[in-house]
Write a structure and sequence with these properties.
The chain has about 290 residues and is an all-alpha fold. It has 14 helices and no strands. The protein folds into 3 domains: about 80 residues; about 80 residues, Serine Threonine Protein Phosphatase 5, Tetratricopeptide repeat; about 90 residues, no CATH class.
Amino acid sequence: MDEEIQAETFRNHSVGFSGANDLTHILWAYPLFSFLLMAVNLFFIVHAIKTGRPYYWVWIIFMMPVLGAAAYFFVEMRPNVRSIDWASLRWRFASPAARIGVLRDVAENSPTVKNRTRLAQEYESQLQWSLASETYRECLSGVFDNDPRLLISLASALLEDGSSEEAYEIASKIPAQRDFKLDDDRKLILYRSQAAVGILEPAIEGLEDLACRKSGFAPRYYLAQAKVAGGKDSQADEDLQKIIHTFRHGNALLRKHEQQWYLAATKLLKRKRGFEDLTGNPTRNRGI
């Protein structure tokens, strides 16, 4: 009889201990779950700020942690996720040395202008401006000796590399083009090189015209740079603020294509009067 009572007491004690143990696990899991939830919300808030989404998303995610984050994902991120080019994504995640190695081998085995241009563009994406300009020079032969697109690309690479005088010399010799878009690109590199060598007033006037006519933020960004160089800080701030405001209130397509200029404008605006030179290349980041 005593043995049965002891066995029953032991079973009751075991059940009670198991229940207490389960409660302990729940109490330990609750702060972990809260931390994970906070981390997820923080991720979406940071993503919204860094990629220039409207600020109301920050408040939505903050006020409605789960629903707000889900709404942000499906409205802002999901449409772009569907359009991801996975082959391009794999190429982007390859190491810089590997990408250059592949393109260099292709250009050596088949030295066409197209293959050399792709190699030069890869050098540009890695900010290797001297190699980019050297590769563009190799393209300027035969029927491509005076190709305006190649000359524009060469002048741009030289400008980024600090060879402002040579860039201006090349840009000033490119004739006007019948293709309006190509001619706007010619004018842009001409005005940029003018600003780089100190011919500021014609550069600012030309960039003002391009900023009003040409789509995209590039002319206005370079206009702000020229104005900072000319001591017109308040006017430059207005141009930079316009880029930031338009970007934040734009659609997903605009944000996808203009994010590099938004980031560059934000950086330049933060520096204010700490302007260093006219050859700073905008950050080439891509966001979902």
